[in-house]
Specification:
By secondary structure, the chain is an alpha/beta fold. Helices cover about 25% and strands about 35% of the residues. It has helices at about 10-15, 20-30, 45-50, 65-70, 110-120, 135-140, 205-215; strands at about 35-40, 55-60, 75-80, 90-95, 120-135, 150-155, 160-170, 175-185, 190-200, 220-225, 240-245. It binds S-adenosylmethionine.
Length: about 250
Amino acid sequence: MPEYDLLADLYNLEYAHDYDVPFWLSLADREGGPVVEWGAGTGRISAPMARRGSKVTAVELSEEMIERGKRKNESVEWIAGDMCRVKLDKVYGLAVCAFNSFLCLLDLEDALDFLNNAREHLAPDGLLGVEVSVFSPEELAEPSVSQLRHDFTRQLSEGKLDRFSASRYDPASQIMDMRLFYELYDDGGSLKNRRAHELKIRLTTRDELELMLRMSGFSVESIYGGFDGEPFDSGSEHLIVLARRR
Ligand SMILES: C[S@@+](CC[C@H](N)C(=O)[O-])C[C@H]1O[C@@H](n2cnc3c(N)ncnc32)[C@H](O)[C@@H]1O
């Protein structure tokens, strides 16, 4: 079962942010042509792109996420499939793999399969944008035995969602093993739902990502550390790489 099937009902509550959306919209305007979003979740980025007039295909592994995405915008074409392997019958001017979907690929083989597949689905000269989170040294440090972190509280229209986590990073495999604990409260403050999930991601670095892109037939065009085009440096929380099909 795809990991995100079990998280799908919380996803829109957990990730309501849109600070990255204008960046992807302006790229879609600039590049023209249809857009494919790989690992599109519930359409947080695909839906506003389609609303603005782009023809968008959203590829997603989890049917539960897709079901929620379809409710956001009817014109997005949703494809259930594995972004490393799925074959679409179109090529695109812009491909987006944002907000850590790339980190869901847990080994180099899948990462390279994905980049090759993404390249095959780009028109000549098409652009791929990959964005991943950069973790701080504190987040990567070995946790003490029972270290539970309070990640956030989201105020909802009815109640609130709290997330706690205990994560362990293994520098040898680059895998971050996250244990996530959710508490959902109603507006009277009563606990409605409490549950735990395990989620694994594989972290990457600027140079590793650039090298993988070069190996997969891309020329890296720009690297940013934020959605206003800030340079990538040791304080950056995001790594955004734009690479053109060679
Ligand atoms: C952190 S979410 C990001 C979703 C979306 N990009 C966003 O910005 O909100 C990662 C998504 O990638 C999807 N995913 C993970 N591995 C995938 C794969 N091999 N093929 C397609 N989707 C995948 C997950 O199911 C999940 O919905």
